[in-house]
Amino acid sequence: MPLTNQIAGCPPGLEYLASIDRIQIIQAVDVLEAVIGWEVANRYAIINGIGQQIYYAFEESECCERQFCKQRRTFCLHVVDNFGKEVMTIRRNFNCCACGCACCACCQDLVTIESPPGYPIGSVHQQFGCCHPRYHGRDVTGQVIFNIEGPDCCMMSSCCDKVFQVHSNGAMIGEIRKRWGGMLKEAFTKADAFGVSFSLQMPVAHKAVMVGAAFFIDFMHFEADGDTAQATCTISTSGGSAKHTMVNQSDRKLAFLFGHADNSLYWVNTTFGFIDAGESKHINIWRDVGAPWRKDKLKVYFCFAKGPDELEHFKGPDRGEVP
Questions:
Q1: What's the rounded Cα separation, in Å, for the pair 188 and 266?
Q2: In the chain, N or C: fewer CB atoms in 10 Å?
Q3: How far is it, in rounded angstroms, from Cα 232 to Cα 272?
């Protein structure tokens, strides 16, 4: 990312946002979470429209809250630039009364956005929504600067992009799009990808609040255990097959490997291989007839490719580790 000059009235460190009208937020995949379900602190790359990383975000939260409170946990997201300087902080406190529809004020969640850290510039507030998730973005004075409305409950559970439209004074000024990552990625991981678009003329502080809203939406709607997605990957013990697509949304080549405790039950048309950046691979999975002798779970390991031999990436104690 090129260096930018300080702009009057712009939070220091966020000057680059003044010159762009869209970003992508890519959550890093953690193999420990993908394979055994252990909730780890989230990490994200924030990139511009040509794939350059402009910021990096990492979660600070308590381990016990991540395991037991899941998406309702207290967190602090630190957003740093490519030189390691923290330029924005996003905070949320635990709300034991929080519920999906936010039917009353005590059940409504919120995040605050600070830039630089310690100096609030805005907040995002959950609003009541019976069938559609709704949020208000507010400036530091508490005035509503935009409204966000998500797709209905049917679209939220479908296998497609989820679009949260951003409106101000009756006009659409941007969107937050949760990108569908393919069946396997959605089923086995909670690593999400978002596109955030806004008007080029929008004040930088308002753009930062929209970025905070994207992270908030990720935690509120896409940080759950993913049981619904996993159910779509179920194959009966009487045998059967399933077809899925693995999508590499990173900017680097990935190596992958399928494994199972009882390999006599499962076959995969491509047990291991590579997926180039931005490419996809079709996967066919077959299961033979028979009851599992232990928990019946097919695993997929993946990591950034470092050499020409696929299997070498998954030998030893660091197999499948994403740097």
A1: 17
A2: C
A3: 22
Residues 284 and 265: their CA atoms lie apart, in Å, by 14
Which amino acid, one-letter code, is at 7? Answer: I
Q: Is the pLDDT of residue 3 over 80?
A: no
Do 126 and 102 meet the contact criterion of CB atoms below 8 Å apart? yes
pLDDT of residue 129: 76
Q: Which pLDDT score is estimated for 230? A: 37
262: phi then psi, degrees, rounded to nearest 5 = -125, 90
Rounded CA-CA distance 160/149 in Å is 17
Q: What is the mean pLDDT of the chain?
A: 79
Percent of residues in the chain assigned helix, strand, coil, to nearest 5: 20, 35, 45
Q: 288 vs 21, which has greater pLDDT? A: 21
pLDDT of residue 98: 55
Q: What is the pLDDT of residues 194-206, one digit of tens each?
A: 999 999 999 999 9
Of 122, 86, 112, the closest CA to residue 14 belongs to 86
Calpha distance 177→161 (Å, rounded): 7
Q: What are phi and psi of 225, to 5 degrees?
A: -70, -15
pTM value? 0.66
Farthest-apart Cα atoms in the chain, separation: 68
Provide CB contacts within 8 A for 231, sequence distance 6+.
none
Q: What is the dihedral of CA 249, 254, 260, 263, to 10 degrees?
A: 120
DSSP symbols for 215-259: HHHHHHHH-S--HHHHHTT---TT-EEEEEEEE--SSS-EEEEEE
Q: How many beta carbons lie within 10 A of that of residue 299, not counting itself?
A: 15
pLDDT digits (tens, 9 = 90+) for 97-107: 655 556 666 77
Cβ-in-10-Å burial (0-12, 13-18, 19+) of 164 comes to: buried
pLDDT at position 139 over 90: yes
* Structural contact between residues 82 and 110, judged by C-beta atoms closer than 8 angstroms: no
Assess whether pLDDT exceeds 80 at residue 276: yes
